[in-house]
Amino acid sequence: MGFLWSLIIGGIIGWLAGLIMGRDIPGGIIGNIIAGFIGAWLGSLILGNWGPVIGDFYFIPALIGAVVLVFIVSLIMGSMRRGRS
């Protein structure tokens, strides 16, 4: 049950990051989950472990990390689209 809860919270974190940035994450719900997990890792690596814990994620660093990840992915995807034109 813990793994399922982590998938749900990871998806929500990725979805919230996409909403904050105003950009869609490629891959739909799977992309949201991946962005949430990688964002949680990135956020805890940079900001440490603080804030409320939800589903084994420190929510605030995870959300900030996911926002940074969405920003970086959107820059890369934007440059790839411009390169094709």
What structural keywords apply?
GlsB/YeaQ/YmgE family stress response membrane protein, mainly alpha, two-stranded antiparallel ribbon, Transgly_assoc, 78% helix, transmembrane, globular, 85 residues
What would you note in describing this structure?
Helices cover 78% and strands 5% of the residues. The chain starts with a helix and ends with a helix. Helix 1 packs across helix 2. By secondary structure, the protein is mainly alpha-helical. It has one domain (2-78). It holds the Pfam family Transgly_assoc. It is found in: Cell membrane.
Strand-pairing-aware structural class: mainly alpha
Total number of β-strand segments? 2
The count of helical stretches stands at 3
Strand order in space, largest sheet: 1-2
Largest β-sheet summary: 2 strands, antiparallel
What is the radius of gyration? 13 Å
Distance between the termini: 46 Å
List the domain count as a whole number. Answer: 1
Strand proportion = under 5%
- The arrangement of helices and strands along the chain is HHEEH
The best one-word shape is globular
Q: In terms of per-residue confidence, which ranges show pLDDT below 50 for 5 or more consecutive residues?
A: none
Fraction of helical residues: over 70%
Determine the mean pLDDT.
85
Membrane topology: Multi-pass membrane protein
Protein name: GlsB/YeaQ/YmgE family stress response membrane protein
Family: Belongs to the UPF0410 family.
Organism: Paenibacillus faecis
Which secondary structure elements does this structure contain, and how are they paired or packed?
Elements: H1 2-21, H2 28-47, E1 53-54, E2 57-58, H3 59-84
Antiparallel strand pairs: 1-2
Helix pairs in contact: 1-2, 1-3, 2-3
